[in-house]
Design brief:
Layout: E1 18-22, H1 36-53, E2 56-62, E3 67-73, H2 78-97, E4 110-112, H3 116-134, H4 147-150, H5 162-167, H6 173-199
Helix pairs in contact: 1-2, 3-6
Length: 200
């Protein structure tokens, strides 16, 4: 699966089959996932939106104040799908938690992915985000990301295009899991080195 060497840098100008890394955050840094019910509801809404707009979701991770999504758009629909996802989840959140007003920042952070290497690194970054932000020791310890499905530790959720993900790394799912594990381990070493340097 090859990308064009360059894609428009505007996250609102999308191209058919383009790849994007989307990272919406809570307004004023507020919590957007308070409990497991919130996390399940967001996954249910993401699944509906991905099906409606024919997104290929390659990676996803829920944190507490934000989430990450790596998605390919065979039929465009990034802004439309994100508006539906954000609005539907905000309605749910305000109703359940007795809040009002904007849950998310007005403009979601979405960046075009501009090369094959950029795509692989973005996927690894999403799966390693719990280690960088929350301090867990290994990515498989975080249940709210696609890492466990990526490496064959659990079945893929309905929204995840696992076969498309595997094709990025190898010609068979088993080999792709092994290659991606090593790739993530390399990234984990980089994170550990950076922490050690900060500690010194």
């Amino acid at each position: 699966m090859s990308l064009r060497s360059k894609v428009s840098r505007s996250p609102r100008v999308v191209e058919p089959n383009g790849f994007y890394h989307v990272s919406p955050r809570g307004n004023d840094g507020r919590v957007i996932f308070a409990d497991e019910d919130d996390r399940r509801q967001h996954i249910a809404l993401l699944t509906k939106v991905a099906w409606r707009y024919r997104w290929r979701v390659l990676g996803y991770c829920q944190m507490t104040t934000h989430y990450h999504l790596v998605v390919q758009l065979p039929h465009l629909g990034l802004s439309e799908g994100m508006r539906q996802l954000q609005a539907s989840y905000a309605v749910y959140w305000n109703r359940v938690h007795g809040r009002s007003g904007h849950l998310f920042r007005q403009h979601f952070d979405g960046r075009p992915i501009e090369s094959d290497r950029h795509l692989l690194v973005a996927l690894r970054y999403v799966d390693l985000n719990p280690i960088v932000v929350s301090g867990v020791f290994r990515p498989e310890q975080w249940p709210c990301s696609t890492y466990r499905a990526h490496v064959g530790l659990e079945h893929a959720p309905g929204y995840l295009s696992l076969s498309a993900f595997h094709q990025l790394f190898a010609d068979s799912p088993a080999r792709a899991c092994r290659v991606y594990k090593r790739f993530v381990q390399d990234g984990l070493a980089l994170v550990s080195d950076a922490r050690a340097k900060r500690g010194r």
